[in-house]
Write a structure and sequence with these properties.
- With 314 residues, the protein is mainly alpha-helical.
- The protein has a domain at 75-222 and 271-313.
- It has helices at 78-90, 92-95, 102-110, 116-135, 146-154, 161-170, 179-183, 192-207, 210-217, 267-271; strands at residues 238-239, 246-247, 297-298, 304-308, 311-313.
- The strands form two sheets. It has a three-stranded antiparallel beta sheet with strand order 3-4-5, with no helix packed on it. A two-stranded antiparallel ribbon has the order 1-2.
- Helix 4 runs parallel beside helix 8.
- The chain is globular, with a radius of gyration of 22 Å.
- The termini are close together.
- Pfam families: DDT, PHD, WHIM1.
- GO terms for molecular function: RNA polymerase II cis-regulatory region sequence-specific DNA binding; zinc ion binding.
- It is found in: Nucleus.
- Keywords: Metal-binding, Nucleus, Zinc, Zinc-finger.
Length: 314
């Protein structure tokens, strides 16, 4: 059980808000048409039972067992780390980031060596943000230096991303508050606090992009591709149940002779079934878009309890 030092609030009344943007919707991923999908029915988010009203009376103190220390990240940073991880996990499809365990994420944050996972997280977030800037016709320098600047930004890879990140943060006065976390030490080999601050900044930037907004507003309805992922041709295509990919029967591995009667997943989605990630997602979280976690309850001392990433957090 992880202990979190954040101040907890104790809502004495929880009112249902019909206009709340964070709904868990349940929709079918099946589509009879390759070219269009009909919107699914919108269902309200399932709320937990209402917490009891706090009564001012003497109660015995509640003694907790010692907090577990299986995670490498200090307990005071747990909630911030989980917030970053949940965005990367829920938006992994649009970010084109393969699933990974929370324990691996924590290990990557504290690592002081070259880490592929850290590089990929920064690269996919930066690419998503830069695509949004390109759509908005944002220029990062004078017209005569435009090509030179763009070559620095868009030729990003596992070795050059720290410099691209620094250049991007220097491009706007609003982003300068992130620069000290990169310049204090040779980022990303500095303290874990610096990595968390930088990743929080990138995640916040990503959540303002159109691609993230479209994912939130899709209500779980998949817009399938128009062509086969293998041969890029049109025709009678087989739809994956969990992503936007479509294939000809003869293009899948192994090739199929007829359409399966049960739900079918492409080989990429099958490979992304990572133990400790996909098999531990609560049933309510499978109804996408699941964009807000709710506490599982409160105790008599107004402490808030969460169940996140297979852990009870207080």
């Amino acid at each position: 059980m992880e202990e979190d030092d954040d101040d907890s609030d104790y809502p004495e009344e929880m009112e249902d808000d019909d206009d709340d943007a964070s709904y868990c919707t349940e929709s079918s991923f099946r589509s009879h048409s390759t070219y269009s999908s009909t919107p699914g029915r919108r269902k309200p988010r399932v709320h937990r039972p209402r917490s009891p009203i706090l009564e001012e009376k003497d109660i015995p103190p509640l003694d907790f067992p010692k907090s577990s220390e299986d995670l490498m990240v200090p307990n005071e940073h747990i909630m911030n780390v989980i917030a970053i991880y949940e965005v990367l996990r829920n938006f992994g499809t649009v970010l084109r980031l393969s699933p990974f365990r929370f324990e691996d994420f924590c290990a990557a944050l504290v690592s002081q060596e070259q880490c592929t996972l850290m590089a990929e997280m920064h690269v996919v977030l930066l690419k998503a943000v830069l695509r949004e800037e390109d759509t908005s016709n944002t220029t990062f320098g004078p017209a005569d230096l435009k090509d030179s600047v763009n070559s620095t930004l868009y030729f990003i890879d596992g070795m050059t991303w720290p410099e691209v990140l620094r250049v991007y943060c220097e491009s706007d006065q609003e982003y300068h508050h992130v620069l000290p976390y990169q310049e204090a030490e040779d980022y990303p080999y500095g303290p874990v606090e610096n990595k968390i601050k930088v990743l929080q900044f990138l995640v916040d930037q990503f959540l303002t992009t159109n691609i993230a907004r479209e994912e939130l507003m899709s209500e779980g309805v998949i817009q399938y591709d128009d062509h086969c992922r293998v041969c890029h041709k049109l025709g009678d295509l087989l739809c994956c149940e969990t992503c936007s990919a479509v294939y000809h029967l003869e293009c899948v591995k192994p090739p199929l002779e007829e359409v399966p009667e049960d739900e079918w997943q492409c080989e990429v989605c099958v490979a992304h079934k990572v133990p400790g990630v996909t098999d531990c997602v609560a049933e309510i979280q499978k109804n996408k878009p699941y964009i807000r976690h709710e506490p599982i309850g409160y105790d008599r001392s107004r402490r808030k309890y969460w169940f996140l990433n297979r852990r009870l957090i207080m």
